[in-house]
Design a protein that fits this description.
By secondary structure, the chain is an alpha/beta fold. It has helices at residues 2-17, 39-47, 70-76, 80-87, 96-102, 126-130, 153-162, 192-196, 210-213, 218-225, 238-241, 254-266, 268-285, 288-298, and strands at residues 25-29, 51-56, 90-93, 109-111, 135-140, 165-171, 182-186, 201-204, 230-232, 249-250. It folds into two domains: 17-112, Rossmann fold, CATH 3.40.50.2000; 126-285, Glycogen Phosphorylase B (Rossmann fold, 3-Layer(aba) Sandwich), CATH 3.40.50.2000. The N and C termini lie far apart (43 Å). Residues 127-131 have low confidence and may be disordered.
Amino acid sequence: MKIWALVSGYLRRIICLFKIHKYEIIFIHRELTPFGAPIFEWIIAKVGRKKIIYDFDDAIWMSDPNGESTLWKTLKWRSKVAAICQWSWKVSAGNQYLADYASQYCDHVVVFPTVVNTAIHRPLNRRTSFQQKKLVIGWTGSHSTLVYLDPLIPVLQKLEQAHDFDFLVIANKNPELPLQGFYFLPWQEKTEIEDLSQIDIGIMPLADNEWSKGKCGFKLIQYSALAIPSVTSPVGVNTNIIQDGQNGFLASSEEEWVEKLSLLIEDATLRKTMGQTGRKTVEAHYSVEANQEKWVELFKG
């Protein structure tokens, strides 16, 4: 199935090349093909002579420090990011760190943050909807980012000794964490909001490295849009999204993680206040509505 998906994907890209003559601007998110040199992008820019808007929201020019084989690195051809930036009319980067990289190769770079539709990402009454008895600390993400939970296991185990809570992971792989109150939900698009709404406190731990600085804080934005207070590592754009002590907490050490999660566990009023402030942050800076004019401007000029 994967082989067929890959072959059919390349066939669709080839067909697209015969349609680009109808358009003035070609918008490319991350890459047109998962492997190999940027041949399709080169044809669009140099043969089709089309304006390209290139958009990316991760440090995709780097190898993932969580593990990549030499073969995988070769197949991914990560140097293509610089080439596509060079051929682009404009680049839309998810944060300033990514924009600084793109600016080495393109003169017109715009920082466009990750946004959510706040009409869909909206607070639900968690207690009424899910009949929860315990407070829930939660995390959501893909299997490739589960590694960020590992350093937090001692923190959660220490908290379990003093507090009664469940720990929820929503992902495409069960990490089977050694916690008393651990449970897992497979990620599903159709139930994502309802599943996330089971969480009382969201977390986003990150390693402090160059790869993580490319992250655009989607978890934090999702939590905040649902009025869920969060605790996160002060890495990259996280420090722009979270104002420590106002719409969430920043935590660097194991002691800080224990301290700040404990504050939220013990104080329902604080959770509510921080959650509401987080919702206002998203509405003002990370919503579709707040960024729609900036998005339209990207296609002008």
